[in-house]
Amino acid sequence: MKCTTCGSTSLIEGVLLDEAGAEDKKFVPKDVSYLKRLFGMGGRKVQAWGCIKCSHLQFVIEFTDEDRARFREFAGQQPSVLERLNPESSSQT
Ligand SMILES: [Zn+2]
User: How many whole angstroms from 90 Cα to the centroid of ligand 1?
Assistant: First the structure.
């Protein structure tokens, strides 16, 4: 892995902990429902990498193959949740 800020390859992998020491930081796409989020569903594990040289912190999301297949069709700007749910209404704007 390379630092996106300075280009160094001196990165160390780590985890982000909250004050209680919980290590369950997850990335949750915006279209995951509130109820699913409430029960901890729909989140993807996040890896954290710190650059020794410039202290830049970067994240990597562990997307599943299913996620890639689902989101790959949208190149560039991702559609909003409403546009995704009702694609016909967005084409009229
Ligand atoms: Zn760096």
Answer: 40
